[in-house]
Design a protein that fits this description.
26% of the residues lie in helices and 24% in strands. The chain is of the alpha+beta class and 549 residues long. Strands 3, 10, 11, 12, 13, 14, 15, 16, 20, 21, 22 and 23 form a twelve-stranded mixed beta sheet that branches. A five-stranded antiparallel beta sheet has the order 1-6-7-9-8, covered by helices on one side. The radius of gyration is 23 Å and the shape is globular.
């Protein structure tokens, strides 16, 4: 999940990512390294070496490593995922779901009973053996209201009961078929197994003392500064697409939290970090021509910037006002000014790469026109005041825009564009964690968000009424939309599901619930002393990395 809130939930590209899941009656782990490929960036990597430390500069700090209690920020999933593992994984070449911590799985023809055989010999960092009971306890903890697992709960969707009749057999019983479940079970952070022994030992401090089954172990957390992971010397169960199937080679992996982009780049240039995440497009040219660094670039699997509107705000309850906001924003100008052209206009809440994307939205989307926006506002009763701000019944059309410094350029442009049609916007900048919290509590009129994902079920998280107070920041409570979103996650026939999301996209445009602005190209800069780094569409993969010393 990352509402920078991008919610980077999944591990792969979306290329029919739901993969006809219920047609599968059974799978086992019979893959070979030759069958599998994954993106690499370095050239001439040389002979791998053991030892050394890799330091990564991140723009955001996790809220907790108790993944069941997280606010859903992607940085939590990305770092926690390095300490964990998944029942299944998605092959980065074929996009098939294959067993991982499960050695095999079967799904009944009605899609309501899922049985996993858990691999033997897997241990947690504290020495606890992974069993089917471990997974039952983990999932039961998510379902327990006392846990308040609001962000992760929806990933298990229609699961009504979890059974573990023996140490190797895990059974999930569903109320109804649930299309995204198999892909959700490949989430490395959110749905990893947890050690109840470790949770009982640490109590309320478990979020700062996590224990997993992954290649990296937690060492320390200096709040506001760094999280340090160390090598798990017992690890020998990496996914088959990695060249290194045993313990990782570096001694440590350090995540340094540097919110300011220019400070992050200064740290990269000085050598205090080896990898910089989310490098601004304007700074990429110098790194592209550098012999010391390598630039990794990719289009986001999701939406890089969207404007959410709070339905608790009286003025925004009028669909004509919402349409006016859509028309008042010049998306191409924002892409040119904020991204130096390194992005594409978003016409829908889904990007074109997603299963279910309907090209018809490119014509249906609101076209930039200040004049049309002004006409809509006039017709809605908002007349221009002497000070340039519109008024209605003695009340000014004045809105707060919740943001963080990382979107400063974009929010200033939105502020100016809305100001030109008579809407006064006041920007309220917060640090990313505080922004997420304020957004989930509805403490805004407008807010900018982004997400990374692969499946159209992301619509459910953002807009279903059950998610108000969790991810539905806008407090949209629309029975027709709710019905469509439930239908989308319970329809398993691919063509029928595609049609549901076509209807969802058209209805969202009709109701103008948000302004999708751009799909951005993301840049990561890596010091060439770091070798073996690999990339999935939503995260960096460190299992094959090593440090040239």
């Amino acid at each position: 999940m990352v509402k920078n809130r991008k919610r980077s939930r999944f591990f792969t590209v979306c290329k029919l990512a739901v993969i006809a899941m219920l047609v599968v009656s059974g799978c086992s782990g019979g893959t070979s390294d030759a069958d599998i490929g994954v993106a690499k960036f370095e050239q001439d990597i040389g002979q791998p070496q053991n030892g050394g430390t890799i330091t990564v500069g991140y723009p955001q700090e996790p809220d907790t490593f108790d993944v069941h209690k997280s606010n859903g920020a992607s940085v939590t999933d990305e770092i926690a995922g390095l300490m964990g593992g998944t029942l299944v994984y998605m092959d980065p070449t074929t996009h098939e779901i294959k067993p991982h911590l499960a050695e095999s799985y079967t799904i009944t023809p009605d899609g309501k009973t899922w049985t996993f055989k858990i691999r033997s010999g897997i241990t947690f960092h504290d020495g606890t053996l992974l069993t089917a009971k471990t997974y039952k306890e983990t999932f039961d903890r998510i379902f327990d209201p006392k846990t308040k697992a609001t962000s992760v709960l929806s990933t298990l969707g229609a699961v009504k009961r979890v059974k573990a009749p023996d140490d190797q057999t895990l059974i999930l019983e569903l109320k109804e078929p649930f299309a995204p479940l198999l892909i959700n079970l490949s989430i490395p952070g959110w749905l990893q197994p947890l050690s109840m022994k470790a949770i009982e030992k640490s109590g309320t401090d478990y979020g700062r003392n996590p224990v997993g089954v992954g290649p990296w172990k937690f060492e320390s957390w200096q709040p506001g500064q760094t999280v340090t992971l160390t090598r798990n010397d017992q690890y020998k169960w990496a996914e088959p697409y990695y060249e290194n199937r045993g313990q990782v080679r570096p001694d440590k992996l350090v995540f340094k939290f540097v919110i300011d982009k220019q400070t992050r780049l200064a740290a990269l240039d000085s050598g205090s970090i080896d990898i910089a995440i989310n490098v601004p497009a304007k700074d990429i040219k110098k790194y592209r021509s550098s012999e010391e660094f390598e630039v990794i670039e990719r289009m986001r699997s999701g939406i890089g910037l969207l404007l959410e509107m709070n339905m608790r705000t009286e003025a925004l309850q009028d669909v004509e006002v919402r349409k006016a906001l859509n028309m008042a924003i010049n998306k191409e100008a924002i892409i040119q000014a904020a991204l130096q052209g390194e992005g594409e206009i978003a016409h829908s809440f889904l990007p074109p790469t997603f299963f279910g994307y309907d090209k018809a939205v490119e014509e249906l989307d609101y076209k930039y026109s200040q004049e049309e926006a002004k006409k809509l506002l006039d017709a809605a009763g908002w007349k221009m005041g002497a000070d340039g701000t519109r008024e209605k019944n003695g009340k000014k059309l004045s809105l707060t825009l919740l943001s963080s410094e990382s979107q400063a350029k974009e929010t200033q442009l939105v502020q100016a564009m809305l100001g030109e049609v008579g809407i006064k916007v006041t920007i309220n900048n917060m640090d990313p964690a505080a922004m997420l919290d304020a957004a989930s509590k509805g403490q805004f009129d407008l807010t900018v968000m982004s997400y990374t994902d692969v499946d159209p079920d992301i619509f459910y998280l953002f807009f279903h009424s059950s998610q108000i107070g969790v991810f539905n920041d806008s407090a949209i409570n629309d029975p027709k939309l709710d019905e469509l979103l439930v239908k989308g996650r319970t329809t398993v026939d691919l063509e029928a599901r595609k049609q549901v999301y076509s209807e969802v996209q058209k209805y969202m445009i009709e109701q103008a619930y948000l302004v999708p602005i751009y799909i951005d190209k993301q840049f990561i800069v890596v010091n060439r002393r770091v070798k073996g780094l690999k990339l999935s569409p939503d995260r960096l993969l460190y299992t094959d990395t090593w440090v040239a010393q």
